[in-house]
Amino acid sequence: MPNNFVWYEHMTTDLAAAEAFYGAVMGWTAKDSGMAGMRYDLLCVGDKQFGGAMALPADALAAGARPGWMAHVGVDDVDAFAARVKEAGGAVHREPQDIPGVGRFAMVADPQGAMFFLFMGNGPAPERPAFGAPGFPGWHELHAADGQSALAFYSRLFGWTKGETHDMGPMGIYQLFTAGAAPIGGMMTKAADTPAPVWLYYFNVDDIEAAAGRVKGAGGEVLMGPHEVPGGGWIVHARDPQGALFALTGPHM
User: Fold this and answer.
1) What is the model's pLDDT at position 2?
2) Calculated CA dihedral for residues 145, 149, 152, 154, nearest 10 degrees
3) I need a surface site. Which of 7, 27, 30, 170 has the fewest CB within 10 A?
4) CA nearest 53: which of 21, 88, 96?
5) Number of H helices and number of E strands within the chain?
6) CA dist list (Å): 128 to 7, 138, 177, 185, 195
7) Alpha carbon 187 to chain centroid, angstroms
8) Are 188 and 143 within 8 A, CB to CB?
């Protein structure tokens, strides 16, 4: 499906340690992609690839980059969408370029500064796993400077539409959004102590308590949860040993 999340990328200061951590928590395996000129590992659930991992380059670290997760939204014309991001007040941090044999991408940010990638593959997109499939990314959450205007930007850019709205009291409004029929994520105005607008990615687990225990056991930090959310699911917000934020979602067994 176009204009949906298609790939997830982890950038870190210690690639081997990060892969060992997520292997222990999520059961992922990593293998060298064979990309010329750099080490880029493919992250897999079983034999299915869903993302990649790489060490942060020295120049990126010098510029203030820190370990984190980013995702690629699949589009049918990277250059046209990058131009539309600029026209809407966003930024292009890495101009469109080709990945030989793979596709074309650009690194962009929305008008409030939250970063993501645009991507167009050379071939057909891989089959999407079933919603909630353990090990795979399952939810996409934007902590925006202003949730309402952020949704307007992404709706114009990608055609995403409003889903259900949840009033979280002092935390504000949580707005679900859809790409097609089903919700794929939520947007909200960020908390005052969140330094800057950011996308937070949730990975599916089959037992939220057990997964939270694995985070702690592997040297990570549980920042929030397990916490029940509307619809009967449970979530955990966490930080890996290198400092990257991520989240988990799944049932409470």
Assistant:
1) 67
2) -20
3) 170
4) 21
5) 5, 16
6) 11, 11, 18, 16, 33
7) 13
8) yes
What is the residue-wise DSSP string for 68-88?
EEEEEEE-S-HHHHHHHHHHT
* C-alpha dihedral (163, 194, 82, 158), degrees to nearest 10: 0
Quick one: tokens of 156?
């114009």
Span 25-35, pLDDT tens digits: 999 999 998 88
pLDDT per residue as tens digits for the range 137-178: 999 999 999 999 999 999 999 999 998 888 888 888 899 999
CB 68 within 8 A of CB 11: yes
pLDDT in tens, 213-239: 999 999 999 999 899 987 768 999 999
Q: Are 26 and 92 in contact, with CB atoms under 8 Å apart?
A: no
Answer whether residue 58 shows pLDDT above 60.
yes
- Residue type at 45 in one-letter notation: V
Q: What is the pLDDT of residue 156?
A: 96
170: which DSSP letter? G
> What is the rounded distance in angstroms from the CA atom of residue 214 to the CA atom of residue 134?
15
With vertex at residue 127, the alpha carbon angle to CA 125 and CA 133, rounded to the nearest 5 degrees, is 135
